[in-house]
Amino acid sequence: MSDDFELDTDDLQRRMEGTMSNLRTEFASLRTGRASASMLEPVMVDAYGSMTPVNQVGTVNVPEPRMVTVNVWDKNLVGKVEKAIRESGLGINPQLNGTIIMLPIPELNEERRRELGKVAAQYAESARVAIRNVRRDGMDQIKKAKADGLSEDDQKFWESEVQDLTDTYTKKVDEALEAKQEEIMQV
Fold first, then answer.
1. Which GO terms describe its biological process (predicted)?
2. What is the per-residue pLDDT across 65-110, written as a single tens digit (0 to 9) for each?
3. I want to staple 145 with a disulfide (CB 3.0 to 4.6 A). Which of 13, 86, 124, 150 is the partner?
């Protein structure tokens, strides 16, 4: 039995990569003083009887560094889209121009930048926890195989493989956080 054991490191790596992907998405939603179409991704509009993402009721554009525009396709939805953006907690005041909603991105003050840095750090810590959970699952599989007759040398080998994978992805999280905090603090 012990010779047949092979830990599915590809599965562990895929799960850790999924955590990184999720972290990148969360970082993209943080407003850094620069316009980004992705900042509207979490905003949902009550359209046609269901909650719909903004990008499915209009075209989201970034015509200049401090401006996002939403060209709403159905003029009956303009008011609902404006209300959804206003109530989204993004801290942006929409301005109407026919079916186009303009979102001027205000300059971030120092206090707001520090708050965003803390939020980014919380996102990164959540990612680290998720990576450690994947590591624990891998280690549990190894312990189970050890109980089924896996040799101690093989156990040590697989444990070091899992730990190396964990260290690699934890380092990626730290690098992503550092880059995001640098972006946030940039004036």
1. cytoplasmic translational termination
2. 888 899 989 888 888 988 888 887 677 788 888 889 998 887 778 8
3. 150
pLDDT at 28: 78
- The arrangement of strands across the sheet holding 95-97 comes to 58-64, 67-72, 100-104, 95-97
Rounded CA separation 184/178 (Å): 10
pLDDT surpassing 60 at residue 1: no
CATH superfamily of 8-28+109-185: Ribosome-recycling factor (1.10.132.20)
Predicted pLDDT of residue 3:
56
pTM of the model: 0.67
Domain ranges of the chain: 8-28+109-185, 37-104
Q: Please say whether the beta carbons of 18 and 172 come within 8 A.
A: no
Give the CATH architecture of domain 37-104.
2-Layer Sandwich (3.30)
User: Residue 32: pLDDT above 70?
Assistant: no
Q: Which of 31, 55, 29, 59 is nearest to 44 (CA)?
A: 55
